[in-house]
TrEMBL record:
Enzyme Commission designation: 2.7.13.3
Presence of keyword ATP-binding: no
Residues modified to 4-aspartylphosphate: 612
Protein name: histidine kinase
Keywords: Coiled coil, Kinase, Membrane, Phosphoprotein, Transferase, Transmembrane, Transmembrane helix
Root EC class: transferase
Coiled coil (UniProt feature): 288-315
Transmembrane segments: 10-28, 258-278
SUPFAM superfamilies in the record: ATPase domain of HSP90 chaperone/DNA topoisomerase II/histidine kinase, CheY-like, Homodimeric domain of signal transducing histidine kinase
SMART domains referenced in this protein's UniProt entry, alphabetically: HATPase_c, HisKA, REC
Annotated Histidine kinase domain residues: 322-542
Native source species: Flagellimonas abyssi
Amino acid sequence: MPLISSKKELIFPLAIFVFFIAIVFALWNNSLNTQKSSYVREIQNTGSLRAKEFFSLVEYNIKSLENLKQRIEMTNGSYFDYWERDATLIMAQNSSFRFVEWLDSSMVIQKVIPIEENKAAIGLDLTTHPRYPEWKKHISDSITNISPWTKLYQGGSAFLVDAPVYLNGRFMGSVTAGMDFTAPFNELAADLDKYAIQVEDEKGTIFYSKNNPRTNEIGKEFIFTTSFEVDVLDGQTWKFSLMPAELNFLAERKQSTYIYLAFGLLLSLLTSSLVYFYRSSRKKNKNLHDANLKLKDLNTSLKKEQLRAEKASRSKTEFISNMSHEIRTPLNAIIGFIEVLKLSEIQSSLQEYLSLMDISSKKLLLLVNDILEIDKIESGKTTFRNDIFSPLDELKNIIRIYRRTAEEKCLYIDLNQVSQSQVEAFGDIGKYGQIITNILRNSLKFTETGGITISYEEHVVDNYLSIAISIKDSGIGIPKDKLNTIFDRFTQVEVGKAKRHEGSGLGLYITSKLVELLEGKIDVTSQENIGTEFHLSLKFPVSDSSGSVNSKGQESIDLSGCRVLIVDDNRVNVIVLQKTLENLGVHSDSVSNGVEAIEAVKKSDYLLVFMDVHMPKMDGFKATKEIRKFNETIGIIGLSADVTKEAIDEAKGVGMNDYFTKPISFDKLRKHLPNYLIKIS
């Protein structure tokens, strides 16, 4: 009897176990399908976004060539004398351009830029070339022609893009460019290591690929494919395909489902055991059952909290990026009023408060700039100017600026320079200065006694200026466990409520990213309570220019009597700018929108217009276009809190002479105004 009873007790728990196993396998199979569907959606979304980026880049490059053609036509051929210079500039700005050439009306190549590697193409008659009929067809329709991937006479292959030029209705020839999109496509796909990409022309020729695409070995549902019509007249389309780079692309995702399967099997076994013990001992089994229910609730809550935390993290990133931009507008007024008050006669008892306000507002601006800099770096929108400057002179200027801060803390800043040549080079002086400034500010912040020793060395190798800079301080040092994370964002040496030094943890992160973009190197060595030393290596092309600049000081230029117009719908911004201009002796009038600005320029003889970008009725870009229709000489400076490259490019494109981002400092105005204002007798 006891044996029979024991078997009966096992039947029900065993049935429960089988039931749960069936559910677990069903859920596991559903999870696999969900993972697969999720990955397919991820591929489709990624492919759609990246295809738009790829094809937008193609359109942008074609538009650059068409703009060159339009300038020749708009000037009725006068601009033809300068097209080679413009073509050289386009090639410098667009890495997809291999050459730009001029084909006359008989389809003979007359000129080509650059000439050295393309001499073989000069004088080449293309009337017998296979693409001649296509070229002729586009001439009759005045539409830009794009060839298939073509083998070049001078070697290599490229797409040939022809923009026909007409003067007074007569066909004169075409501006033709050889384009190879490999380099810019590689930049767009730099962060897509887990995907393979291929792009083919209308003939099925694959002219770009990344990570060895294997379309025949991967299921069609895991391949995103879309087409882009590059030549409407000929119906030419390119096909973009994105797929996983590895054949076992679902292995990692399946691994987690196997863990869940094992957990489910274990849970089924435990559940059936609980049922068995429940039938054996109701009291003990009840306690175990209650504990199991609580565990399930806890797992559900943990999953919800995890999803909520991930969503909050994404929202935080978007919020920081948007708010950092919005903060600049009111910050413009704060810093502007501080500048005005600093230049006015104010009670000595209030000077200390004003100084504290100045320091605090600039710290806030620095933080906002850091956040925007991170957004540009991580979104791949960082741009670099091509200034001519002396790295050694710029280093000395930065040291001169921060020496007063060091002296206030009773610290020294010494410079040991191995070279005295002060070679000038091409590069972005702003980014270079930002790197040095971030490191130097970091050293000053964490140094209480002693000081900072800066060593500078430069050598010219193969027409490049190689510089090596070390910045060594006697500060608190960096713990060994944090040395490897010092260049991570939001990372600080001190943490917790008792930390003594302020900071956002962004400066060194931005510094390392800028050094990386400049193809340089930076590393750090440190010992706690002894000090820290940063080692920086950078390389810039040597400049042949003497780099001499007008030595006339801005202080000596008299701007009194000059009249300018301020166009801004924000009354506070107008007051700040007017007060600042008054301190320079400049008289200003103001209007609140683009329509009023056009009328004011027509009625009065202004030398300069400060044009806000975002305004009601008519924005600053549209107003500038209208003003340029009847006045090409007046200076127009754009004003905006938008610091993106797109906004700056648009400002220059509509005819603005310059573009100032808010807030605008008194020193910046004093430096730039003499370029636009003259002394009125």
